[in-house]
Amino acid sequence: MQAKNEFPTVNPMVVYREEFDDWAVLFDPDTNETFGLDPVSSFIWKKLDGKHSIEKILNELDKECEGGVPEDAPKHIEEFVSDLKNRGLIGYEQN
Amino acid sequence: MNNSELKKIICKILSCKDKIELVSLSNRITAENWNYIYDFLLSYNLCPLFYSLVKQNDLNVPIEIIKKLHKSYLISSALHLKKTHELKNVLLEFNKENIDVMPLKGIYLAEKYYENSALRPMVDIDILVKPDDVKKALYILEKLGFRCSKDYDHDFQINNHKHLPAFYSKSNVAIELHFTLFTHAGYYLKSVKIDLDNIWSTSSKTILYGQKTTQMSVENLILHLCVHIAEDKFKQKILHLFDVFQVIKNENINWQLLISKSKEWKAEKILYCVLLSLNNLFNLKINDIVQQNLVFKGNMSEIECSLEKKLLCDLSSQSFEMVSNFKHRNFIDKLKYIKYTLFSDYSVCMFYGISDKSFKKYFYYIPRFFYLFKKYSKHFIDLYILRKGRHLQDTSISFNLFDEWIQNNEQNFKNNK
Q: Domain count of chain A?
C-alpha cells in the first residue's frame, strides 16, 4: 500500500508515445520491453508526475469518466501503479 | 466480388481523403470478405495504415477485425519506438565521427511522409554511408553493441552486394549498412545504373530524431523507391507504392528532372510502371509531362494487366518466384536460372559467408542443394497446381511477359523526346 506522502513519478528514461486513438505505448530502453496502455492507463500514466497522489489521480479520473469510475477502481489503480513500480517504470517522490 | 477487386477497393480506401467516399467504399465490402481482407492487410504490412483510417473515419468494420488491426498497430508502434531509440544512438555516434549518413526507405519515409510513424511498418533500419566510411561505421555499430548474426566475408560483400548483412542490437533491432543503392548481382534488373556520387552531391542536410543526417533529393528518392520496388519484381509491393504516393503528394516534383534522371538510371520503364500503378490503384493522376515523355512500344494494356496481377497476387513469395521464373521457360533457360540464382558463386558465398576466391565454396554446393530442397519443396505443390490450373498458368505467362518487357531496355520509346 502506498504511503500518503508518496507521489508516484515516471522513470524519465521510459519513452511514452501517445497514439491517435488515446492508447499509448511505453518503451523501457533499460530492459528493451514495450507495453501497450489503454486510454485509462494512459490517463493515469500522464498523472504520474510526482505531484499527484493516487487519491488525487482517482478523483481526476472520476471527473473524466461519464457516470464516474466503478467501485473497484481504487484497487485496480493501486495494482496498476504497483505493477509499474515492480517493472521499474516508475518511482516515488517523498513530499 | 473477386479477391483482386477487394484489394483494389482497399487501395482506394488507403488513398482516399474524402470521408463520404471512404464510407461508401468500405460499405461495398461484405461481412464474409473481412477475414480475407485482414489476411491481405497483414501479409502486405498494411494493418496499421488501415486501422488509422477505420478509427479516424468510423468505418463499418467488424469489431473482431478492428481488434486484430489495433494489435498490429500497437506492435508497429512499439517496434518503431525501439528502432527510433537505436537509430538515434547510431546517428549521434556517427555525427561525432563526422560520418555522413543517409537513412533510407522505411525509417526515413515513416518519419518524413507519414502522419504517424507507426503507420509505416518496417523490418529493419536501412542506412547509407559513403563507401570510404564503411569500416568506421561498422566499428561504431559494434561499439554500440550491434552484432552480425552470421559470418560473412567483408570484401565479398563490398564487391558484390549493396549492404553488409544485418547487424542486430541487444533489443533485436536490425540495421543494414548500405554503401551503395543497387548492384547487378540480382537476376532481374540488369541495365539499371545508379550514380552514387550524384546521390550524395545532390543530397541535403536534415534533422531526424534531433540528430543531423542527410536526405536524398526528392527526384532521387522517388527513383530509388521505384527501383527498389522493381528489384522485388513488383510483387505485392502495395506499401512501397504507397510510399511513393506519399512522397508525390507531399512534395513539389520537378517532373522533367525526374524523367531525365530516370533515363540516366535506365529506369524509365520502372518509373512509368510505378506511376501507372499509382494511377490505377491510388487514383493518382499521371503528370502530363510524364505522359508526353514516357511512351513505350509494346502492348501496354497487356503490360498494365500483368503489372496489376503482380502487385495484387495472392501467391506466397517463394511460389511467386517459381511461377515467375520457372514456368514457361525452356529447359536451357530453366538450367540457367537455377545456376544463376540458386547455385551461383554469389549466392553460395553470400549464404555461407565465405570468400568467392576460396576453394571452400565448392564444398557448400551439396548443403545448399539440401537447404533449397527443404525450403522450396512445399512450393512444388504450386508448380503442380500450375500444370493443372488454367488461371495460374495464365498468370505465369502474364508475369513472364511483363518481366521480359521490363528487362528489355533497348530504346523502345515510340516517341523518345
A: 1
